[in-house]
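EI: anyone free to look at a 508-residue chain?
SC: sure, send it
EI:
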Amino acid sequence: MIDLGPFKEFLSSLSQVSHLNFQIWDAAEGLVFSSGPDEPAEPAREELQDFSLRIMSRASFQHVALESGERLFGVPIRNGQAVAGALIAFGSNSQQKPAPETTAAPQPGRADEMERLLNQMAEFVEDRLTSQQEMEQMAEELTENFEQLCFYSKIARRVKSITFSATMLRKLVAELLDTMRTDMAFVKLPERPEYNALACTGKILEKISEHDDFINGLIDSIPLNSPSLEEGYFIVNDSRTTPGFKDHAPEPYRFLAVKMKHNGNFYGWMGLVSFNLEEIFHRSELRLLDSMAEQIAVVITNSDLYRDLERFVINMVKSLVFAIEAKDDYTRGHSERVCRYSLLMAERLGWDEERKKILQWSSILHDSGKIGTPESILNKPRRLKDEEYQIIKNHPRKGYTILEPLEQLASSLPAILHHHERYDGKGYPQGLKGKKIPLEARIIAVADTYDAITSNRAYRPAKPPQEALKEMEKVAGTQLDPDLVKVFKEVFTRDLGLEQGCNPEEKS
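SC: here you go
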């Protein structure tokens, strides 16, 4: 069935100012909208239905003058390549009865104008049909992939022991310096400078003052056309005889560098420098350094894959939450609004960025446990049965279980688990009371309550903000933390109109 949404109000308003009646006919359902009475005296419903069928069968703009004096104009509404319905406009524009359809023609210029107008209006409806279809398809695909989401979570649990850190590299480079007959060992990662590592003997401090400049100069001097680069390394056994390397240090030195790469990804260089020219770099040393560089590159790759996997799982959960909300006008945007209100409160409390990031994740994902909850329960317009309420009450624990394998979200899990605890201890899932409830969970509870009251629900309409504040003050000390209700009221009066993004990826 064609879903018009807010387009109905637009057509009704346009009808009032244009003195035209607009109707939309669905190919399967028949008449689904009329800006005037559903059963107009003229033209008759049968004539309008026949005209709509003519438009849909010919799939093109149609116009006709009826014996009653009415002129009908219409265009098809498409959903992809198929014709889904027809948009019709009509109105009394002549008191005289024109000749029959076979000989009559609309007034000069009127048909062209109406065709342009109706085609533009039909495009709006078609765009909504396309968006609705894509949204439903996405929700269906995400629901089908829920088992895959759990599978990816298990993988993340197994690979989270794979770590890559500057400390790890510093230790490795120090061990490398101890093992090899050199004065300097380094790792240089151009795209990850925070992981650069360097180890030197006391001798090199006398010869090189600016270590970073020295290493950068060495790497920049490597000729791009060197045949050895095809094998991933470059050797200077005497800086005096190798073009481009003589001026980097006051004394002659030897230099070995290998590429840190894996599966076609280049990460940087691992290198050795020695001022002892009585020795040369042997093939075994090259193989050892190359092997170490390869292993580090593998760790970097796996760490990147792990972070990507975590991000994928998190985004899958977010997408599933948003898909559930998108399927129901009553809850659409709920998580983002709760996130925005929560962060405004955290800002008011003077939290630092790291703690706000934790709150940001927990507030945007606080309802992730509703994944898989039947829509018949989520959208039920009447009081829930006891067994249905128990299913709803399980969503904090279910969300905790789904997200628990993700190390990145570990600090956000308590707020997700406890956001339905009550200040008086009568909440769920553990019946925590007062300050024993995590502060982030108490903040989310306040924001969640406000959004619930000020949003339309299947069982009641939205209430105005001021009335919502009054209700929240009534339950301060029983359901909600009274101090945080005061903070929220301060935010409401000062900051709540401000826009604040809630995409955790922007601060990850």
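EI: DSSP finds 17 helices and ten strands in the chain.
SC: 👍
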